[in-house]
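User: Sequence in, structure out. Go.
Assistant: Echoing your sequence, followed by the structure tokens.
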Amino acid sequence: MEDKDILLREIHHRVKNNLHVVSSLLNLQSNYISDGAALGAINDGKNRVSSMAMIHQNLYQDSNLTSINSKEYFDNLIESLFESYNVNSEEITLQKKIQDLNIDVDTMIPLGLFVNELVSNALKHAYTGIKEKGMLTIELKEESGLLELSVFDNGIGMHEDQFFSSESFGNKMIKAFKNKLKANIRIQNYHGTSVSLQIQNYNLVA
């Protein structure tokens, strides 16, 4: 059993290192790109890779090799995104209501990518042209046999049809993982945008 744990730890360590190499290559590539849209796409890709690398880093460092602590992981992920987009805390206030759960890896990887996309979209688009101070809230909780993930912003707002008709890579990825996790998505456009997912297919680890 000990040998198996050592092997799993080594695998997670190597995957984490390989993902960091990919992230570094994307970062180097960005130095040779002047087109704004292409540069944004490279940065988005780097953040997606980083969100997965954090999971394998946590698995490598933690004694539990099968699950990720939701609070610790999302704290680190969201902090990394705020740094990536150079967010000034004087301009956008962050609220995190993350339930302390141990979530299995197969559930956490798509959850991390969900949060990465939704928070990135909010930081890039939601607050353009608004005068009041931005507020971004991320919630994760288990309730009534469902895992509920929500991202709220008080920005310019986005209609449900805009969200579902988007052909962006990020939205296509969200829709793919939505099916994998048997999730329902609800979009509300009132004093900003609220995106909520009710996830049926998930596993918690004691």
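User: And one key feature?
Assistant: The chain has two domains: 1-65, 67-206.
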